[in-house]
TrEMBL record:
Keywords: Carotenoid biosynthesis, Oxidoreductase. GO terms for molecular function: oxidoreductase activity. Residues 19-489 form the Amine oxidase domain. It comes from Haloplanus salinus. PANTHER family: PHYTOENE DESATURASE. One of its GO terms (biological process) is carotenoid biosynthetic process. This is Phytoene desaturase. Pathway: Carotenoid biosynthesis. Pfam families: Amino_oxidase (PF01593). SUPFAM superfamilies: FAD/NAD(P)-binding domain (SSF51905).
């Protein structure tokens, strides 16, 4: 049954990232009058697109993982992802070039994955089966009990039924320690740990519970939406419009004032007073730049002390010719990547021997590059807060292109016809603290109820969604975050106040 009960509520959503779009869909479907205000001329937030001279680049996320979450999201509204975009399952999932001259393609099928692992370590094929079986169990419990089920308070995590369900899960210890119980070869550890970058963490500071990401990669598979992730943004926005959401782009919000009648939202187009506001902007930005001084939930020292996910040095390159040596997704890794993670989390500095990611969507999609050309995105995770002045960026660009040529055999330097870049400065300009590209890292102290809640404790009627809140970083998590917001609003209004997010997702 379609949720009802918010038909008297007027709600403004600040920011049209995936979290804001999801919240808008859920709230509008529940009957609210929803307007999304976005300061840019396009929707999607970080998940934007660049179009130039026939090239199309995703500016943000480019991996379509956890297809079950997208199916569940659209299914809530009686739709399917295929109603809005088409998917291709990639095979191989990705290719890895190690800097000792070795390389490997990770197949999409289990038999191929087993053979790959066995080629590096005797018995690693059976160890992979055991590891992925445990990862699948962790995924099922974590998603149903920790992610879809909204548990905003620490005491909610001591529910006896939850403790029974979580028995045996690797809740404590680092991911690297957990993986070492299954594999000795360092390259195999890298193959099951690299997805932690999507969570903004490292194998050394991320809880072992996130071994569940290997189930996402190896079992659920890696997919590609035709047209890139921006086509998913278009699909969710189209759904929102179908549900009655109004969009106002090129409309920066400049102020947010709590009043006796609700909240007054000031934009460059004027003022309006609404019952509730959902901010898809980072909570620290909302508190510092939008709310009156002293009205936020947390003081500046709190935000300064957080562990942020990496920023990124990103090159968007349109190049002449094909790139057969590179897969749709390619990783270039040192055999020992610890120093790169240390340069992000322990001793912030530009990495001297970087690990990085190369995305070539034109290997799968002819529509993202002109004939005879390739679309390439090179992304290097770096510490947030680094000085990224023009000289530093120019030096690092040369170092990365040199490294790519040396270790993959692909020299792009004389083939580039279109080029853009992004780094700490660009992400900071979007309000992201210290120029993080992702949000709060998923350290043990910033997981679950230790992340900012969807509901502001200081300002009645103010809510948060997106990668800085629970459940966390990544497009799927942001979609779920939007459902959590709608659940919190419905509870505050008194509609299905005892219902959890499952009331919003009929599965």
């Amino acid at each position: 049954m379609t949720p009802t009960g918010l038909d008297s509520e007027s709600i403004v959503v600040i920011g049209a990232g995936f979290g804001g779009l999801s919240a808008a869909c859920h709230l509008a479907d529940a009957g609210a009058d929803v307007t999304v205000v976005e300061r840019r001329d396009h929707l999607g937030g970080v998940a934007g697109r660049i179009e130039r001279d026939g090239f199309r680049f995703d500016t943000g996320p480019s991996w379509y993982l956890m297809p079950d979450v997208f199916e569940r999201f659209f299914g809530r509204f009686g739709r399917e992802p295929s109603d809005y975009y088409s998917l291709t399952r990639l095979d191989p999932n990705y290719r890895v070039f190690w800097k000792d001259g070795d390389s490997a393609a990770v197949p999409a099928d289990r038999a191929g994955q087993r053979a790959l692992f066995a080629s590096y370590e005797s018995g690693a094929d059976d160890a992979l089966d055991a590891y992925l079986s445990d990862a699948a169990a962790a995924y099922e419990v974590a998603m149903e009990e920790f992610v879809y089920e909204r548990r905003p308070r620490v005491r909610d995590w001591f529910d006896p039924s939850l403790l029974r369900a979580a028995r045996g899960l690797p809740l404590l210890g680092s991911m690297d320690d957990h993986v070492a119980d299954y594999f000795e070869h360092p390259k195999l550890r890298q193959l099951v740990e690299y997805t932690l970058v999507f969570l903004g963490g490292s194998p050394y500071n991320t809880p072992a519970l996130y071994s569940l990401m290997s189930h996402v990669d190896y079992t659920l598979g890696v997919h590609y939406p035709t047209g890139g992730m921006a086509s998913v943004v278009d699909g969710v926005a189209r759904l929102a419009r179908d549900l009655g959401v109004t969009f106002e782009t090129r409309t920066p919000v400049t102020g947010l004032e709590p009043t006796a009648d609700g909240l007054t939202v000031t934009t460059t187009a004027g003022q309006r007073t609404v019952d509730r506001v959902v901010s898809n902007a980072p909570p620290s930005y909302t508190e510092r730049e939008l709310l009156p001084a002293g009205r936020g939930d947390r003081d500046p020292d709190y935000w300064a002390s957080r562990t942020y996910a990496p920023s990124a040095f990103v090159l968007y390159l349109g190049v002449e010719g094909d790139l057969p040596a590179l897969s749709h997704h390619t990783l270039v890794l040192p055999t020992d990547w610890r120093s790169h993670f240390e340069s992000i989390f322990d001793r912030p500095s530009w990495p001297s021997d970087p690990s990085y990611y190369v995305n070539v969507p034109s290997r799968t999609d002819d529509g993202v590059a002109p004939d005879g050309h390739s679309t390439v995105v090179v992304l290097v995770p770096i510490a947030p807060g680094l000085d990224d002045g023009p000289d530093q960026r120019a030096r690092f660009r040369e170092a990365v292109l040199d490294d790519l040529a040396a270790h993959t055999g692909v020299d792009l330097r004389d083939r580039i016809v279109v080029e853009r870049s992004a780094c700490v400065t660009e992400f900071a300009s979007m309000g992201y603290p210290q120029g993080t590209a992702l949000g709060l890292a998923h350290t043990l102290g910033q997981t679950g109820p230790f992340r900012p809640s969807q509901r502001s404790a200081a300002v009645t009627g103010l809510y948060y969604t997106g990668s800085f809140t629970d459940p966390g970083i990544g497009v799927p998590m942001c979609l779920i975050s939007g459902a959590h917001v709608a659940d919190a609003v419905r509870a505050d209004v008194g509609v299905d106040a005892e219902a959890g997010v499952r009331s919003l997702v009929p599965f």
